[in-house]
Design a protein that fits this description.
9% of the residues lie in helices and 47% in strands. By secondary structure, the chain is mainly beta. It is elongated, with a radius of gyration of 44 Å. The chain contains 6 helices and 42 strands. Strands 2, 3, 4, 6, 9 and 11 form a 6-stranded antiparallel sheet that branches.
């Protein structure tokens, strides 16, 4: 079964070229029919419009059928022994008017060569007497059915009637007595094919004009023309101010399709014809289709010896996959020679030579250029120069934008695992995905004091894991920041804590809670973080903090460890670390009374209470107010 939409595709070019043409055949695809009439109904077409199943169609002879599917019906007819089924519809054909007639047809001869050889498809324009006979007729299309056996073919012909007609009549015809000849038809379209020739001249911006300047590109816009299948363009010229005859210069030859918008400068340059300054040009356009052989129109334009050069340009920004900024610059005027340079400058928004640091990369040419690898932490401007043989160098400068976002841009993250064991908190996170590369910065803070308690994880990991000496019922938060060369610092925070099940309800088990924090950074805070990024301190501070924590941990020792209740605990420190205060805490963070005896490099702790077996913490604060926590196991 042929799909009706294939016919539409086959005729698409015709419809596009002649979008204003109107199909004179109503219900030419038979899709409007009485649904009470079943498909394959043998008398779907009757000779009375009130009883015919198909809108706008009746039978002229026999009982033609409607076959196919509910959404894709078609008309079916047969003929044998000079008898035939036929269908008709009203079409007002006008004398001398050219029409295109198209349809899709399929035939069947049941393998009988006599039927094949003696049968025809017939489309006629007719006038029918009130008594039913044909008064006048003229063939629109007739052909042997053998050319259309078994598979649908699309037919398109032209028809110019020699008189007015009011009816389209369709039927197969076979005079012989062999197997009957059959035809199926669908998608019938009849349209007037008048040509309308109209065009004008435009510059590269599509502005209408008949006056052009040095090196300007001339466009011919014929999109308002209608009905043409082919066109030809002739060009002639004479000096500006002359009243003499135009001298022929060249032609495009016949070109298939609608005329549309034509770049005359390029088209004739390929023909060896240069549109020069100082001339008036005459353009003759002739249109043609299968009905009209020649429809000419002449218009003129001038090429002035003056010149105009436009340095204006537009810029587009996007964040590349590597997290850097790419800038695409497009010249507004394609004429002339274009020069492009990207410059770094010391001041945001500045395009002055005084603030210019220097050229970045190499000079580029062309009407569209791309600059890649830019950073939001630097300042740039684009310099665009244009010139040609008629006009000297002129330039324009434009400062680039600082920030270029992407989607999705997010610093959010999820907690993938967390546990509390022997006084140590273990917690892991996973950053949500960004569509471009970003740096990741992670650390854990004390919610009460906003003091950083873990080294920073920076700058590539999206799955950080932290283990640190923590306390029950104490709140902490993970701080996660992102940045790249497209956009500055953005951060999210999630708070978490651990608690112990109430006594009698599995006291050795712990529960935890997590809550994303609603953090809105101030302008000053963002400026501080971005300054750290620009200076490199955001990475250097991380390295220095890790080294300092490792160094301080190596300078303090605790023994014995493990220890027993009531035992004296010794804390030794090097000369570089002077101990100021010492605390003993249980896992809930509660302070345990103890006696502290200390000298310059050694501190003794006398525990006065009977400690239960388990994990405790010794917090050491030195004279620099730096804190070191060591775990203590009581046996």
């Amino acid at each position: 079964m042929r799909n009706k939409y294939k016919l539409f595709t086959i005729l698409l070019a015709f419809v596009v070229y002649h979008s204003t043409a109107q199909n004179l055949v109503r219900n030419g695809d038979f899709s409007n029919y009485n649904t009470n009439c079943s498909l394959s109904f043998s008398d779907a077409f009757t000779n009375n419009s009130s009883t015919s199943c198909v809108d706008d169609w009746t039978s002229y002879s026999g009982s033609p059928s409607l076959h196919g599917t509910p959404t894709n019906p078609y008309a079916w007819m047969w003929s044998r022994g000079r008898s035939f089924e036929s269908i008709r519809t009203s079409v007002a054909f006008k004398q001398g008017v050219c029409y295109t007639v198209s349809f899709s047809v399929r035939t069947n001869d049941h393998g009988d060569t006599n039927t094949n050889a003696g049968s025809t498809i017939n489309l006629r324009a007719v006038n029918i007497r009130s008594t039913g006979g044909i008064q006048n007729e003229e063939d629109i299309f007739t052909d042997n059915i053998g050319n259309y056996l078994n598979n649908y073919r699309t037919v398109q012909v032209t028809f110019t009637p020699t008189r007015d007609y009011e009816t389209l009549l369709i039927n197969p015809y076979y005079a012989g007595s062999g197997r009957q000849a059959e035809m199926s038809i669908d998608g019938i379209v009849i349209e007037e094919r008048n040509i309308t020739n109209t065009f004008g001249f435009e510059d590269v911006t599509t502005a209408s004009t008949h006056q052009f300047y040095c090196q300007e590109t001339v466009f011919l816009n014929g999109t308002a023309s209608e009905g043409e299948d082919r066109y030809i363009i002739y060009i002639s010229k004479r000096p500006l101010g002359s009243t003499g005859s135009f001298q022929w210069a060249g032609t495009t030859g016949w070109i298939s399709g609608p005329i549309g918008r034509v770049n005359l400068t390029n088209v004739f340059q390929h023909q060896g014809v240069v549109i020069e300054n100082g001339y008036e040009y005459e353009i003759k356009v002739a249109l043609q289709n299968d009905c009209t052989n020649w429809e000419p129109l002449i218009k003129r334009f001038t090429m002035q010896e003056e010149n105009k050069v436009d340095t204006a340009f537009s810029v587009q920004y996007h964040c590349d996959s590597d997290g850097t900024i790419t800038v695409v610059a497009n010249a507004a005027d394609p004429n002339g020679t274009h020069w492009w340079g990207l410059y770094e400058t010391t001041q945001s928004g500045s395009i002055s030579d005084t603030d210019t640091v220097g050229l970045i990369g190499t000079v580029q040419s062309g009407t569209t250029v791309t600059f890649s690898g830019l950073s939001t932490y630097k300042n740039y401007y684009i310099k665009h120069g244009v010139w040609n043989s008629c006009y000297p160098w002129t330039e324009a400068r434009k400062a680039t934008d600082g920030n270029v976002s992407w989607s999705p841009r997010t610093s959010d993250f999820s907690i993938t695992s967390r546990s509390f064991s022997n006084g140590t908190i273990h917690i892991s996170a996973l950053a949500l995905s960004n569509s471009v590369f970003v740096n990741h910065w992670w650390a854990i803070y004390d919610s009460a004091t906003n003091a950083q308690i873990t080294p920073i994880e920076c700058c590539g990991t999206i799955k950080p894991s932290f283990s640190f000496a923590g306390q029950l019922n104490k709140k902490y938060y993970i701080k996660h920041g992102i940045w790249n060369d497209c956009m500055g610092w953005k951060e999210s925070r999630t708070e978490f804590w651990f608690g112990q099940e109430p006594s009698g309800q599995h006291p050795s088990e712990y529960y935890s809670e997590i809550h994303p924090l609603d953090f809105s950074p101030s302008t000053a805070y963002l400026a501080q973080m971005n300054a750290a990024i620009i200076s490199g301190a955001i990475i250097e501070d991380n390295i220095m903090m890790r080294r300092d924590q490792e160094r301080r941990a190596s300078l303090i020792s605790v023994y014995p460890n493990p220890a027993y209740a009531y035992e004296t605990i010794h804390i030794d420190s090097s000369e570089d670390v002077q101990i100021k205060k010492v605390y003993l805490l249980d896992m809930s963070g509660a302070h345990i009374p103890l006696e502290v005896i200390q000298n310059r490099t050694q501190t003794k702790l006398h525990i006065k209470t009977a400690l239960k077996k388990g994990v405790y913490f010794i917090k050491v604060i030195d004279t620099a107010n730096k804190e070191t926590v060591r775990q203590l196991l009581i046996q």
